[in-house]
Amino acid sequence: MNSEIRNLEPKVLWDKFADLNAVPRPSKKEERVIAFMTAFGESLGLVTEVDKVGNVLIKKPATPGLEDRKTVVMQSHLDMVHQKNADTDFDFDQQGIEMYVDGDWVRAKGTTLGADNGLGVATIMAILESKDIEHPAIEALFTIDEETGMTGAMGLEGGWLKGDILLNLDTEEDDEIGVGCAGGIDVTAQRTYQEEDVAEGKVGYTIAVTGLNGGHSGMDIHKGLGNANKIMNRLLFEGFENFGLQVSAIKGGSLRNAIPRESFATIVVDGIQEEAFVFETGQLIQTIQNELAISEPNLRIEIKKTDLPKSVMELGVQEGVLKALYAAHNGIYTMSASINDLVETSNNIAKVSIGNGKVVIECLTRSSVESSKIDLVNKLRATFELIGCEVTTSGDYPGWAPNMDSPILKVLDQLYQDINGEKAHVAACHAGLECGILGQNYPNLDMISFGPTILGAHSPDERASISSVQKYWKFVKEILSNIPKN
């Protein structure tokens, strides 16, 4: 199956991408891909080092004639988001990604593709292996755990890198040159509750919200996509208000940085209310599907009768949790006043887990303005603390402030126009790139971000444009041959 991928142009890049995608590489389980990358560097006879947190650095001297150019750090992250459709049988810990060609797109069978940031990694591998591509001295930096905490970038110590320019290959629009990004922070609300026995005369039901697009909780947060946790809560809230619905368990979402695509709940209602409950819920389901018909045409919401569960939530706690989830902010909070069409601050209600006497609600809050980020965190904290939750924050990382006077920006801006006959879109993004963190220990690095077009990142609909990769590969080679002199 992946043989057709290896035959795409540029073959050297797609071949390395296929090699990489054969290696399981979930965040926080990167041992195999670290070993893979280390062996790759050593097989080329290049200086290859691994730091204490697992970042890999491979150094390649300049090609003849470019020894006087500034040293370039080419950087991408090794881990990938692991998401699959509910009906896809796949073990991310053991299997390589199964890819196929669909017109101008490379996709995966029912899972994330790993183009984020695997195409960046494959690009660097192809440059390291090349014998005929002109380039200055290169420090190839492969970081770990970008998707679930950026601990690789955070653990990178000052002094290891000697480069002057950093090319981050983690942007997902081929006409964009990235000059800034949002910072982020994890917000977690937790509390316990007493479980109650199910009373006589109750009937059990399951509710399943599936078929949503999902996507990147930063890059896609402005698209009006459905959030499975918010949709489920709307159904449960109405069922509770109108029919005394009681919750036994909820499981929604899987990763903080992915807009949740699925949510599943087990509930009970009075038997005498059963017919009315099913009818009214069906009406609400139709309303929600109509509201999201354009942005979420594949949304499915199913309600099915099931065996009666053994226990349900304490009623007072349930009421508070449903109301808090309704009130908690999800999506865009503020737009940037200084950069047109840029989301400044947002929140993703990413995971909701209720059962066995415990409530856990996990969010990822992003912002390019620190004060706005803290403002939204405080709003979430106040919302959940009002219902008795303990709210904690973790994984705080800084944004990357744009430098419109960057020398490497001027190089890329002009080269893009020369190659493509039009100007690139120079922009900051709402995703969390590692540049802001790397800049803390390497404040003099001149940083820029770019990449090929990737759509649907962090979802099983992730896909990479073949023609865009060809355009991007040409751009990469031109950049490397035009790095300024020392």
UniProtKB/TrEMBL annotation:
Protein name: Cytosol non-specific dipeptidase
Domain Peptidase M20 dimerisation: 208-277
Cellular component, GO annotation: cytosol
InterPro entries: Peptidase_M20 (IPR002933), Peptidase_M20_dimer (IPR011650), Peptidase_M20C (IPR001160)
Organism superkingdom: Bacteria
GO biological process: one example: proteolysis
Catalytic activity field: Hydrolysis of dipeptides, preferentially hydrophobic dipeptides including prolyl amino acids
Organism annotation: Aquimarina spongiae
EC number: 3.4.13.18
